[in-house]
Amino acid sequence: MDLPYYCRQPAVKKQNTLRQIRQIAQPLVDMLDDTMLLCGSEAYVSVLAFYTYLKGAAKMNVPGAKTVLDDLSTRFPSRPAKKEKAV
Fold it and tell me: Are 69 and 58 in contact (CB under 8 A)?
């Protein structure tokens, strides 16, 4: 794209051109968003499985497990206790 030429064009033409570029790029941006979401989800599931393994290892007094668990536990805050419903 010839940017100096583009900058000399009337505002309406610039806006239409930018809109066309956005329409072309939007499906790619949407796919990137989906990919990032999926990768984040897969990473979270993997780390959660590792964290669960570490909790078991720490209970069995595996050397070093408690230290790693303490470091990782900041990423997995405990959930508040469930309140029992009154009947």
Answer: yes
DSSP label at residue 39 = H
Cβ distance 48 to 76 under 8 Å? yes
| Predicted local confidence at residue 87, as pLDDT | 57
Helices (H) and strands (E) in the chain, counts: 3, 0
Mean pLDDT of residues grouped by 10 in the chain (87 residues)? 68 78 93 92 89 93 93 80 65
Q: Which residues contact 14 (CB under 8 A, 6 or more apart)?
A: 6
Query: CA-to-CA distance for 35 and 29, rounded, in angstroms?
Result: 10
Nearest to 17 by CA among 6, 8, 27, 28: 6
CA–CA distance, 48 with 59 (Å, rounded to integer): 17
Four-point Cα dihedral 46, 49, 53, 59, nearest 10? 130
